[in-house]
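Cross-check.
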Amino acid sequence: MRLALRFAGRELRSGVAGFRIFLACLALGVAAIAAAGSTAEAFRQGLASQSREILGGDVVFSIDQRRFTDEERAAFARLGPSVYSVRANAMAQTAAGQRRLVDVRGVAEAYPLVGVVQLEGAPSLAAALAPADGVAGAVVEQALLDRLDLELGDIFTVGQTRLRVGAVLISEPDRIGRGFALGPRVLTDVATVEASGLLGGGGMFGEAVRVLLPATADPKAAIEEVRETFPDAVFEARDRSEAAAGAGRLIDQLEYFLGFIGLASLVAGGLGVGGAVSAYLEGRKASIATLKALGARGALVRDIYLIQIGVLALLGVGIGLAIGAATPLIIGALAADQLPIPALFAVYPEPLIRAAAFGVLAAAAFSLWPLARARATPPSSLFRKEMSGRPTLGLESVVASAAALGLAALAILTAPSRGAAAGLIGGAAGAFLALSLLGLAAAWGAGRARRLARGAVRLGLANLAGPRSAARTATPAIGLGVALLSAIVLIQSSLLAQVTEVAPRTAPSLVFTEIPADRAEAFDAVIAQALNDPGPDRYARLPLITGRITRLKGQPVDIETIDRGERWAFDEDLTLSALDGPPEASEVTAGAWWPAGYAGPPLAAFEQDAARGAGLEVGDTITLQVLGREIDAQIAVLREVDWGGFGANFAVILNSGAIEGARPRHVAIAMASRAEEAAVTQALAADFGGVNVISVRDQLEQAATLFDRLALAIRGAAAVAGAAGVLVLIGAIAAGARFRAREAATLKVLGGTRGQIVTAYLVEYGLVGLIAGLAGAALGAAGAWPVVTQVFNATWRVDWPVILGILGGTTGLGVIGGAFAAFAALSRRPAAVLREAG
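Predicted model, tokenized:
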């Protein structure tokens, strides 16, 4: 080993010229994985550091459709200091008749328990909410002021209450923890919201309490204590460990997505790693032959170059870790104030250690095979400048195989969803294998096609079919990058088309909530006049009920026995409806609807996927807690629900008799043009001021804007894998530089012109780019189609301009590579090249 270290040190002192592609490929993949992990960890630490502020306390309990009872309030008071808030959606209206849906929140005097409400226009929240001239104060977001042309001090109406704009709401400490809002936020006191009439029976409202616990108290134990005290109460409870609802899962998915791109880059760049090692050993054939001729054993040769590869691999991993660790710090410096959730940007060891492990395993998996071949080649072949040895079952091949398996295992074990990770790894491996076989097939096909060609084209096809063909090395790497980029582009374009084109054609453009049951027919008359008597394909009205499924087949709901993807229907409140007969365009998959006028025991229509996830069939019984009582309903219908379409899109629909006498509020949907939306909103202002009007079109436009903002970042991240393919192509060109120079010199001596030689190289490398692009786009489409149609249930659409642009880019990349290879080969004089070859 001492001798191996001496030889390795002497060779390393000559520089790393032959390992630049090796270092670049390794550093690129490690940097992507390290950056993804470090950025995700920064968000996790940011959420953890402000968990109390985000939640507004240590625990929060929230309910819908009712207020907390005196007994419940007493139980919360025993836990520690608390503050209550109420919330509702309502229409804000000015004296000029302008209207906008807002998210109204009333808070108690002690609000906030933790953190500070940031305002403009008032010294404090108490001052902003203080009444003036008998009008209660409110703080509102700037978006509402802009929409309704309001200024500080102006008056507007919400429900039955007049409010004065006391300040502009910049932020609330618990805003992230509250989640999505349908409209601009309006913050006032609890008494004002109570006086507005928004908390009446049947309305869509809720109440929450935030509690500060003693320092030694366990938040989860406190939640469990309340649940045991009120076993029949239906409320949501969260502690500070899950302060931002859904944010933790979103961060996991972000890290997984970006980390998978980094892993794909590392795998794609693995060919560059292997090619760089092969090229380096090609240049050391004379040294290896001399060592073997002088009696050096294969183990010594292996150790000499293994030490060099190991040192340079650590250097490449170190470069990648430095870039990956610096990336989130740069993001924090440039965009910390614009991020939607808090982040603590710092250097975190765990994601860097994980990225380093990925890099070391990838280096071992792809670099040891060329080393095994060099060790197995006899000296006589090496002196003839041939590397003809075949890797045997030795240390190198065993370690390389173990490293490849370790790479896959590490990717699966560190992913949020191991099943999804295994699927993606298997898909990537399958795609890589398919692209590798395609490269071989392209070389074989070029060999057959050259018989039909003439001149420079024939020469280019012969090169493509030859033993040093870039098709064998560059096609898999470029194709994998193109496949990943194409899949992301196709998924993104299909979802964007769903939001901007498909949904506006099929989904309602207006949703009306809080329609009083006793005035439902009068409401229909106003809509009929404003929309010129719309038919059932343009307008529908249904009762709207909030409830929760508490028992299945007579047994309490055990959420662990339900498929994870369908638990949404059983672990939280649902919006339900009731019908006197089948709705329009009902997609029944099992059972039959009850007839109009049915007056028997309660029946239910259930969404088929949720029912199957819980093992429910037609004839089974479910128990729902609805309107303060429990209803045992038999499943009569399983149905397919088009969640993005126009119709009765509820997971559960009861027969009308099941809620007879309850008179819940109603909800209505309508298809309308932009002009009709304005007319309807204006028509409802006089007699139905309490009805909320939700513009789905506005929500879709906001979603489209968000998609557009994310598009460049997503495609840029995916392009990292494409960059690895570019490095592999450059490595293939560099590895064959000496052979290409000798080939060009021979052709020039035999009368070939510079134009013919350049054309031959352009044909060869241009075809490599075209083949890799076509194969990658096809594989990307194959991977994107099930995601769009099965996971998102969206309409499949191909963004042809972008796909053609990708194909043109890969072909152009190949052409540029061919030009570079040609001019590099032609830059040397034939005599010098041929003397060197001899």
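Residues 606 and 638 are 5 Å apart (CA to CA). The first strand starts at residue 59 and ends at 64. Passed to J.P. for a second look.
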